[in-house]
Amino acid sequence: MGSMSIGTRRVNSALFPTLVLIAILTACGGGGGTSSTMQPSQPSTQPSQPSEPTQPAGPAAYSGVQILTWHNDNERTGLNSNESTLQPSNVSASTFGKLFSYPVDGYIYAQPLYVSNVPSGSGIHDVVYVATEYDSVYAFDADTAGDGSPLWKTSLLRPGETPLQGGNPKPWIGVTSTPVIDVGSKTMWVVSEHNGGVIRLNALDIETGAIRKSVNISASVPSTLPEAVNGQLALSSSCLQRAGLLLSQGTVYIGFGGCAHGWLLAYDAASLTQKAAFSSSPNQDGYGPYPGGGGIWGSGAGPASDDQGNIFVVTGDGPNDGSQTGWGQSVLRLDTSLKVQDYFTPFDAAMIQCKDNDLGSAGVMLMPGKNELISGGKNGQMFVLHTGALGHQQNNNAGAVSGTWYNNSTYTDTCTDNHGTLLSGTVGDYRIYGTGAWFNGSIYVGADPGPVKRFELQSDGSLKLGSVGPAAFTRGSLGTTPFISANGTSNGIVWALDHGTPIGAGTATPVVLHAYDANDLSKELYNSARNSADAAGLAIKFTAPIVANGKVYFGAGHDDLGGAKPGGELDVYGTLPHSR
Asked: Model's pTM, two decimal places?
């Protein structure tokens, strides 16, 4: 990994100390204040070097709906309860459909983000932000396509750089994770990957796209492994930064997987200095069909946090011995110094590991107003855990509040592990890759092959199956992460993407947008595959929609693999100007 570097382009030297002081005092405030009166800079369309702010990073009053992080909030509920336009009565094939698409220069794996009433370009806009695998970040007018031009576009590539090529995702690995925004400091944090093994944390101005600051990411922890240098295990450039970013109490948390060790890093949001580093397997290498070491990836899910600043993550395939040596296949609660405070590990973790049924294929969702969370993985089993006492590893998962199979069609299977030990255990034939969403005391979960199901949380923490979607999704589509729009506790709509055959899994098919009545999932309100005018772009695995101010947004591919630089698109759906 490269050493830490900070951009050196300067503003007027007389203004610089003032700007730095303002940025430090106002960064990461999370809201409030009044907008800056300074004019935003012109859109950035060329590869750009990191620069200091061209205007103060003061507080801004962006009134209206904001979707600033993966799955809408730090609890990862996937609920926008401030949607007053869309309701079950006006979402139908005759009144709702595809409005327009924005072309972009690479595939969009990251979830879009949304900020209302942003001073950008020539006026005030509701803005939707997308990041691509070609290391670009775009800001688009969320309501009107115009000629398809962005309000601004910023390349995170420096001269001579390209995104990583090959591997997974294909063909480029640039920005894979969902960025995070703080409106108080007008900042977006985004992680980009580049050729030469460079991974970079960037802070952008959300009004102009200017790169305020950028640092190369590197990390190390004490280790006894042979590959450790001077007793320190270093973060490998082969790791993939897929997990969405988390901003909590002035700190940006960054998860890594896809390599021999899982990692979680903490960076000060204002200065971009590293505060802490955690490896989930510092003294054991990963093993198995896909040799991860407790990777933190969650199919794109970001770590969750509560009001006290506790961080919750789920780890994937990797060694586990209930100590600092190996934390694979576990739900972890960490403090702000990234020290493990508590954990839950399924009693059959060895069997789960052997079958590549890692628990970490989906993220954690914290239930609002409760001391409980839910997590589930490729084995098809969902666990409700007490956030203050996760339960450790006990026979038959006695430490969990409850354990529920997504589908009761389980079977007994065997597997021989890497030590030659024959293991036996229960396996589900439905895999969970998507994180659940929350609405009115129920949890909405999609699996591969689905369909979306509603599970009602009971007073004892158990889950009771409620309504079920009308049809399963495509097997091999890698599940779905639902998003829910509602007006308070009413007019709930569940939005879900069926990825069919996603890019890289064969000949890609268009992603299909579904909408269901949240009170009764058997009532499908809308299906984008039923009208050719509504056809979306090609499916990209693990992508998730957002809903804001009467419109639905999600990333898709415009071209399949095969070209030198396949492009992507942001698809936008909403109420039609005229009924069909």
From this structure: 0.89
